[in-house]
Structure formats: C-alpha cells, structure tokens
Amino acid sequence: MSIRGLKKKQPKTFKVRIITVDAEMEFSCEMKWKGKDLFDLVCRALGLRETWFFGLQYTIKGMCTWLKMDKKVLDQEIPKEDPVSFHFLAKFYPEKVEEELLQEITQHLFFLQVKKQILDEEIYCSPEATVLLASYAVQAKYGDYDPNFHEPGFLAHDELLPKRVLRQYQLTAEMWEEKITAWYAEHRGIARDEAEMNYLKIAQDLEMYGVNYFPIAQNKNHTDLLLGVDAKGIHIYSINNRFSPNKSFEWSSIRNISCSEKELTIKPLDKKAEVFKFFSSQLKVNKLIFQLCIGNHDLFMRRRKVDSIEIQQMKAQAREEKARKKMENQRLAREKQLREEAERAKEELERRLFQLEDEARQANEALLRSQEAAELLAEKAQIAEEEAKLLAQNAAEAEQERQRLEITALKSKEEKRLMEQKMREAELIAVKLVKESDRRAKEAEHLKQDLHEAREAERKAKQKLLDITRLNYPHMAKYPQYSPGDSRDANFDKGSIKLDLKDIDLKRLSFEIERERLDYLENSRKFEDRLKELKSEIHALKLEEKQAGLYS
C-alpha cells in the first residue's frame, strides 16, 4: 500500500482549543464528530468520569452557548476561528457537594470555577465569608502554615478577595494578608481535597451559587424580571434583587415546561395552580433556558432514584479512595508529626550541642582568662613583693633618714642653742667692745686733749724760755764767741734734749693711741664679719629645720 493511499484514508480534522479554569489543551477533531465525541475526548484527557455536570461552552455574537451533544460540531453555530475555542465548565451544580462530587478532579474543577465566580463577583459573598474562603484556598495551594517559610508578603501575588471587598474596606494588602493568615493558621492538617471541599460547602450556601440568570418579561413589551435556574428549581427575581426570589418553582412541583419561540410556559403539578408564562428577548435565550431546565430536572430526578451500577461503583471507589487517602493522610500526618518531632529533637540537640559548645568555648575562654589572670596575679604578686621590698627598703631608708633628721634636728637645736649662745655672747662682746670703744675713745679724747695741752704748755714753755733767754742774755747775739756763754748753751742744750725727749714720749703715746684705734677698728670689722657669718649660719639652720619638718 502506498503512502498516498494511507493519506487518502486518514479522516479530515480541524483544531480545537479546550480551555479549563486552570489550563489549556488542543485536540484534533474529526469533521464528522458530534459534540459528544469531542466532549468524551476531553473528559478522557482529564480523567473525568462525572461527566454529567460539565459541558463545552462557546461565545457567539456576545452570547454564551453550550455545545449540543447530539449534533455535529461543525453543524452548530460555532466561531469561525482556527483553532476553535471551547470552555470546559460546570453546566449543572450539585445540591450537596459532599455527597455528589465523588472524584477529586471533579471537586477540583468545581472549586476553581466557583472561586473564579466569587472573585469575578458573579456570586455575591460577604466580606467575612470571603476571608474564610480565601484561607481555605490558601490551605489548598500552600498546605500547612509554617511561619518560618510563609513570611509576610507571601500572598502578595495571589488574587484571593473580590475587588468589591477591597474597595469597601480601606485596608492595606498587609492587613488583608494578616486577616487571611489568622484563619489559614487554624487549618493545619487539612489536605488539599478537604480544603477545596470545605470551600465548596461554604460556597453552596450562598444565595447566588449555581444559579443561571436570564432577563425575562411577563408580557412581550417589558423585560422587568430575572429568571434563575439552579439544581433545586426555577426562581423569579426582581431586576434589582438576585438574592431573594419573588416566586420559586421546585422541580418536584413542576408538571411540564414547554417552549415555543420566545414564550416559555411552566405548568405546576397542581392543576389548580396558575400556569406561569414569560417571554425572553431571543429565541436562543429561550432554548438555552429550556436546555438548562431539562438538564437540572433530569439530575434532580436522578438523585432521587436508586443509583446505577456505575454510580454505585464510583461511590464505592470514592469511599475506598477517601478511606485510603484518610489512612494515607493519617500516615503522612504521623510521619509529619514524627518528622517534626525528630526535627524538633534535632533542633533541640543542635541547640543543646551549640549550647554545650558555647559553654565549652566560654569555659575555655574562662580558663584562658583565669590563666592570664593567674599569670597577671603572679606578676602582680612579684611586683608587689618587689614593691614590698622596695617599700621596706624605703621604710628603712626613711627610718634612717628620720633618725638622721632627728639627729640633725637635735644637732640643729644644739647648734641653734650654741649659735644663740654665741650670738648672745657676741652681742655681749659687741656691747663690751662698744663700751670699751667708747671708753677708749674717751680716753683717746682725753689723751688728745692732754697732748694738746702738753703741746700748748710746751709751746708756751718754749716761748717763755725764749723770752727769758732773750731778756737775760741779749749780748749773746752780739758776742757769740764768749766762753761763759758756752756753758749756758750747754745748759740750754740739755734743756732742749729734755724737751725733745718729752716730745718723743708724746709722739710714741700718740702713735700707740693711733695703733690701738686702728686695732679697735680692725677688731670691730672682724667682729662685724663674724656676726654676719653667724647670722648666715643661723638662717641656714632655720631653713634646714623647716625642710626637715616638711620631709617628716
């Protein structure tokens, strides 16, 4: 068989992009495939068995439409694009998520879709409930809270709260994170699937959960009502209130629903009750409402019948899987607990080891310090011993100096006493010398006076003698050769000798007096010098005495 023949036998395909809440996939779809063929391919790729909740949605001319399972894909009014995009979403919602959602993949897809609807404000949620739901979403994503790992700011890039709530309360991102983390820390030990299930159990109690809203009118001219279809029935709302329905028709109370062009009729089971008719803006909207009503009614009736063998097997497998996961989670929890205990024990041992090492280090440092202190003390002791010796030596020297000073002081006192005595003696001598000098001066004055009187008497005697001689011997001047005159001259010469002798005695006496006066002056000068020396010695002794007193 040729390659060309093989190519001719291969069916024609077109590309399809399937967009889930958290991923995208591309498939090659055969031209003849129906919607169910593509849907089953996607379910097999996802490993999904609870297929009755989901559908493939696409948007055409601004209106969201579900792909019909019994028609060919290309025969339906799908977008003309390559690849053709479909959104794999939950089309119908369970009444009780914990009982009806059996597979973990089903829970996860519902969790992601409901979370997105809450964040996009398609489902209203109070601020308090949004914080609690956000904490379960964080638990599902990050696992157990660990303050060492989940530091402040770890939720900065996660979208966890609706923008309406963020605008309503003027809180910073750090404040919101603190509130969410406070709840998140309390979910310790909850596995991912449990956290997602807890999220859905809270969300299913919200008024807008699982409700598809459509604008309707009770007549052909006004669109003043909203029709909501969910797992429990059909509800009629006012245009501005999507929380509390004005009227509700439970599936168990509806006998028939009919659709004709833009008109939709709801016939209650009670034949006496009023038939409700309403009109939609487009035939497509009317058909979409009719499809959702049929699908939700079928699921409602299916829940109240005995489960099929497939459902029973799935529930049994789900129970076994839950039991297995529970045991696995318990085992993991025990292992985690043991690991945490081991880590804590390890940390405690490491802390203890570090503490012991620190204590050993401190002990070594203390030992080194004690050794250094001992060496320093030994050195100080040696220095102190040397200082003691030096002090003893200085004390001995000081004692010797004190004794010397005492001796010196005694000597100084004795010398002072002697000097004072000498001074007193010198003063007495000086007084005596002064008196003697006065006496000698008086005597000298008397002698001078006597000498002056003697000289005056001598002069007078000589004059008298001369006068007598001239009177008695006037011829002697004329007759010098007269012999009698020689004898008289001889007598006169004798008298002259006597006078000369007397004159010599007077000169000697005068000389002695002068010599005594000079000696007295010399002695006085020496005595004054001695007095000055004594005063200097006394002054030096006083200074030494003062210095000795200061030193003591």
UniProtKB/TrEMBL annotation:
PROSITE patterns linked to this entry: FERM_2, FERM_3
Alphabetic keyword roster? Cell membrane, Cell projection, Coiled coil, Cytoplasm, Membrane, Nucleus, Phosphoprotein, Ubl conjugation
User: Organism, per UniProt?
Assistant: Emberiza fucata
- The positions annotated for binding a 1,2-diacyl-sn-glycero-3-phospho-(1D-myo-inositol) are K68, M69, D70, K71, K287
Q: Which GO terms describe its molecular function?
A: actin binding
| Record's subcellular location | Cell membrane; Cell projection; Cytoplasm; Nucleus
Q: Which residues form a coiled coil?
A: 311-464, 517-544
What is this protein's record name?
Answer: Merlin
- Topological relation to the membrane, as annotated: Peripheral membrane protein
Main location, first listed in the record: membrane
UniProt-listed Pfam families? ERM_helical, FERM_C, FERM_M, FERM_N
Q: Which residues form the FERM domain?
A: 14-304
List, alphabetically, the InterPro entries matched: Band_41_domain, ERM, ERM_FERM_C, ERM_helical, Ez/rad/moesin-like, FERM/acyl-CoA-bd_prot_sf, FERM_2, FERM_central
What Gene Ontology cellular component terms go with this record?
Answer: cell projection; cytoplasm; nucleus; plasma membrane
